[in-house]
Design a protein that fits this description.
Blueprint: H1 2-23, H2 30-46, H3 51-61, H4 63-110
Helix pairs in contact: 1-2, 1-3, 1-4
Organism: Clostridium tagluense
Family: Belongs to the bacillales FliT family.
Keywords: Bacterial flagellum biogenesis, Chaperone, Cytoplasm
Length: about 110
């Protein structure tokens, strides 16, 4: 049970680091942090414990609250990124349409009368 507690404390710390990295837009750190968190999860799977022990420790450490906060933040960042990509696409389309019409009209200046 002590090992499970240590692993869950590490899991919570890794989750908090992920939250901080997302809040500060340190995207380059996310892969390493997620990998670290996955290693902790795999280590926990190797331990022997009951569901009740796991639930009690999670409640004590407020892991569900932290996990929910991370999921909300990730969803928000995902939506923000999606909006930025949509804006870029609209701008790109507008530029392409403007350039197409400009070059189509430019051919009339090349014709001799």
């Amino acid at each position: 049970m002590k090992e499970l507690m240590q692993q869950l404390v590490q899991f919570k710390q890794a989750t908090m680091e992920l939250i901080r990295a997302l809040q500060q837009d340190e995207i380059h750190k996310l892969d390493a942090l997620l990998d670290n968190r996955q290693v902790i999860i795999e280590n926990m799977e190797k331990l022997q414990y009951t569901t009740e022990e796991f639930t009690d420790i999670c409640d004590e450490l407020d892991i569900l609250k932290v996990q929910h906060e991370l999921l909300k933040l990730m969803q928000t960042k995902k939506e923000d990124t999606k909006q930025e990509l949509n804006k870029i696409q609209v701008t790109k389309n507008a530029n392409n349409n403007y350039n197409k019409s400009f070059y189509n009209n430019a051919s009339m200046f090349n014709k001799q009368i």
